[in-house]
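Posting for a labmate who doesn't have an account.
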Amino acid sequence: MPLIASKLNTQPARHQVADKIRESILDGSLLPGERLVERKLAETLGTSQSAIREALIQLELEGHVYKKPNSATFVTHFSQRDLENTIAVRRALEGFAVEEAARQSTRADIERLEELFQQSQAAARVRDFQKYIRHDLSWHIAMWEATHNDCLVESLRRVVVPIFGFSAIRVAMQPGFNLTNDLNSHRVLLDAIAAGEPERAKRAFHAAMNDWSEQASHLYSAENAEAPKS
């Protein structure tokens, strides 16, 4: 289990455990469908199994992991239908969010989005895919928070963040994936939000989503074609 092997510090163990497991899912160290064994996690992180159990409950609520009837816990894996349904919900929720961000964002919100964009740009220059995806997720979360609608933010976290863990890094590492084009789509969206133009922001978001969902679909189809037949 290639989980980050650093020990925990003195902060609440449950939150630290959840953070480390979440990070390992998002960077691809823990794979979709992989079983998470509480005892092994506790040994790796130097904490108690109760802290691991509490963290896994939190991650299950976030959609990163799921429990089977026998109580075993696994990293969330999407079927093609699951992925399509989730993308459809994301389009609706995040499409609304970009409009609201264009209406409600403050100067501080825009500055934060610009800062995160610059970090993504730096990662793209050196083709650090994992860092790019981490900054990209942070950018999206900051954009949701710019709506100043807590209900919307939490709904998007529940729907969208598990997609990043399941497919974002895998899509980004495809041979045909163009980091510059992806970054440019964020630039267009950020400019529309900063200009306070909801319709323009919505169009930019859907254009970017069309490209991303097409690549995710191609990836999923290719993986299914390569999978051994039972």
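Reply:
Got it, the structure tokens are right above this. The mean pLDDT is 84.
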